[in-house]
Each structure stands twice: as C-alpha cells, then as structure tokens.
C-alpha cells in the first residue's frame, strides 16, 4: 500500500513510475495507450505522469491508503480588493454566500481579508498556506479562483493536492461584475508596477552611461 507521503514530487518520469510499481516502462506506455494510467507530454515530447494521476491509478487499484479524516477542517476564504468594497458589505456577502450554499461543512473557519489578488503576502492567504502544509485543511471554498490569487493558481492547487486538500469553487454569478472590476484594477496596477520598474532601470542605465562618459573624459584629459 502507498500513502501521500510516498509521493513528494508534482510529476514523475515513466522510468520512476515503473520502479515504483515494479513493472517495465513498456508496461507503463501500454497502460497509457489503454487509458489505464494517464500520462502527459513535455515540450520535448517525453511522457510524464502527474502526481494526482498516479494516485488516482493507485486508488482505483486499491493500492493507496487514505486515512480517515478526523481533524481536518473546511476553510471559507473571502477576499475583496479595496476597503470601499468591504464598507459596501461585499466581503461579508461573499463569505455568507459560501456558508449558505455549501453543504456538510466540517468545523468551518472563515478567513476574510482586503487586498489585491496580486499580493502574495496577504496575512490570511499565508495563514491558509501554512494550515494546508500542516495537513489541517480538508476543503477550501471560494466564489472564484481569483479570490485566492490572481496569478499562479495552478502552483497553489498543486501544493494543496500534495497535502490532500481540495479547492472548490462555488460560483457567485451575482458578484461577477465586481470580479471583472477588480481584474481591471489589478491589470492597471500591474502595468503601473512594470512601468515604474522599467523607468527605474532606464534611469539607472542613464546614470551608469553618464558616469562612464565622465570617467572616459577624465582619462582622455
């Protein structure tokens, strides 16, 4: 029997899976052709097996140990970008929507915060990540994926899957306009940030060029 701690990598080569299962690489390729074990292709056209696909195969073969969850809890995560949204009640409505529309919540904890989806240093998202890494979280419920993070969602999802945590999106259609407005604000903020960095780089380059020119002039004298 295998368990979650046996698989620490997000993906495996065919040869690695063959060693784990005690079969040949030819068998792994045949299972792929027969649809028994899903593989993906890299840019170099090499087969790889994602961790979740390997575990799914093992579960189907009753070769994977799934401990009974007695301590994990569900997290309701809500986020808005601005204090104005919070004052308008958007943050509370978001959390309430999830509470009212998710059945069978287990020891739920509500995490709410104000901050851009581009900010990966938000206090409660960091708290949530630590809880996931400590195997304390069963499910994370959000109204949209962007509530957790604007970019890098797949990395976060892979981390959660590695610890047996599910991210479940319960879409709130009524909040779609707010989500679109936030996306516009984040894109503008991102453009401003990159423009500032580009301007700073150009300024430094000009100073360096000026210093070099002055140095060459002095040497020439």
Can you characterise this structure?
The protein has 221 residues and is an alpha/beta fold. It has two domains: 4-60, Multidrug-efflux Transporter Regulator, Chain: A, Domain 2; 73-174, Rossmann fold. It is flat and about 60 Å long. Helix 1 (14-21) packs across helix 2. It has helices at residues 14-21, 25-33, 51-60, 83-87, 90-101, 123-133, 153-162, 176-220, and strands spanning 11-13, 40-41, 47-50, 73-80, 109-114, 137-142, 166-169. The chain has a four-stranded parallel beta sheet, sandwiched between helices.
Query: What percentage of amino acids are in beta strands?
Result: 5-15%
What is Rg? 24 Å
Class of the largest domain, according to the CATH hierarchy? Answer: Alpha Beta
Order of strands across the widest beta sheet?
Answer: 5-4-6-7
| Element order: H for helix, E for strand | EHHEEHEHHEHEHEH
What name does CATH use for the topology of the largest domain? Rossmann fold
Q: Which range best describes the helical content: under 10%, 10-25%, 25-40%, 40-55%, 55-70% or over 70%?
A: 40-55%
Total individual domains? 2
β-strand number: 7
Main sheet: strands, sense, barrel: 4 strands, parallel
Give the name of the CATH architecture of the largest domain.
3-Layer(aba) Sandwich
Unreliable spans are: none
Morphology call: flat
CATH homologous superfamily designation of the largest domain: Resolvase, N-terminal catalytic domain
Give the integer mean of the pLDDT values: 83
Question: Structural class given helices, strands, pairing?
Answer: alpha/beta
N-to-C CA distance: 80 Å
Q: Number of helix segments? A: 8
